[in-house]
Amino acid sequence: MATYGQVARLAGMPGQARLVGYALSSLHDRVPVPWHRVVNAEGRISPRSGGSQADAVQRLRLESEGVNFDERGRIPLDRFQWQPANSEESSPSFLALRDV
Description:
Layout: E1 2-3, H1 4-10, H2 17-25, E2 38-39, H3 54-64, H4 77-80, H5 86-89, H6 92-98
Parallel strand pairs: 1-2
Helix pairs in contact: 1-2
């Protein structure tokens, strides 16, 4: 799991966490991007607007993958957050994703 800010930094757009959120929210259902694995900096699922059930779906998907939430609805990032190796951040496969 990663935070919106972490994804933004890895994409070469530090400080653009909201942009990552907007991009993920615009994905179509059949796009094979694991959007449910991105949470806010507090380890919480960000609430959706417009009556969307995506936040409930996100929690169910994460729980089915073994992710635990505390009593305040937070995920312990120290346990579940993805920590890329420095070499992964500059790998050709990662850089190719930036242009998608």
